[in-house]
Design a protein that fits this description.
Length: 246
């Protein structure tokens, strides 16, 4: 069986000495100006976390040097001829158009989270009534109603603060991006999880902007920066005609 990582053109730059799932070497299956990035796997192998990481690592290695259309993890083909017939020939027009659309672009992902204690202090500092409610709840520990009201009020204050901070972050990041995809928050302290589609020549400017953000926010938030990546968050909008530019 062959595990599919993604598709590039036959002129794409190739990362050196790249290995994928099961530490197997990565290779190409080519047809019609396209190359599928694959590696050999067994017929029935359990999926491990290491396999998911290997899949992402291969794609990110290609994204660092060329335009790659990622395949969804778990796409397997019985042999090279099925890769050519069922993928490269059957979807030749779609894949060629996607590669052309994303030429010279990479995805970079910024994930910002509140540090819990500083965020709570800020919520309290902004609302004297909330401070009074907290003191009342402390003085009446057995009062379940007060405890619930305090919890709800803190949650509402945190959500308002998140919205304000997310707007600020986007204002600082989006000038460097061709397109933006805001992902759903994954945790209670998430402020922003955003994918940015960026021209390769603009990546250093975004790198500097994210570094500056991390320094400015270091006492209140943590900033995680990932990339370059393939355009994961922008493939479906492009297929649906919802993402375009001159």
């Amino acid at each position: 069986m062959l595990h599919l990582y993604g598709v590039v053109t036959d002129s794409a730059t190739t990362p050196q000495d790249l290995r994928g799932r099961l530490d197997r070497p990565v290779r190409y299956v080519a047809d019609g100006g396209l190359r599928a990035i694959v590696s050999d796997v067994g017929d029935e192998i359990p999926v491990r976390r290491a396999d998911l990481l290997a899949h992402a690592h291969v794609l990110e290695a290609f994204a660092a040097v060329t335009t790659v259309i990622p395949g969804q993890f778990g796409m397997l083909f019985p042999d090279e001829e099925h890769v050519r017939g069922d993928l490269l020939r059957a979807r030749h027009e779609e894949l060629t158009q996607l590669i052309a659309s994303f030429e010279g672009l990479v995805q970079l992902t910024v994930h910002v989270r509140f540090q819990e204690e500083p965020a709570l202090r800020e919520v309290l500092d902004r609302d004297p009534d909330l401070v009074a409610l907290r003191e009342a709840a402390r003085a009446a520990e057995a009062n379940q109603d007060l405890q619930v009201r305090l919890g709800q009020a803190v949650a509402e204050g945190l959500e308002q603060l998140k919205g304000e901070e997310a707007d600020m972050l986007l204002q600082r990041l989006t000038p460097h991006a061709r397109a933006v995809a805001v992902n759903e928050a994954r945790g209670a302290n998430d402020v922003l999880n955003v994918a940015l589609l960026v021209e390769r020549d603009e990546q250093r400017a975004l790198d500097a902007a994210v570094t500056e953000l991390g320094e400015d926010l270091s006492s209140r938030m943590t900033v995680r920066y990932v990339g370059p990546q393939p355009p994961y968050s922008f493939l479906e909008p492009m297929r649906q005609g919802e993402l375009s530019w001159a």
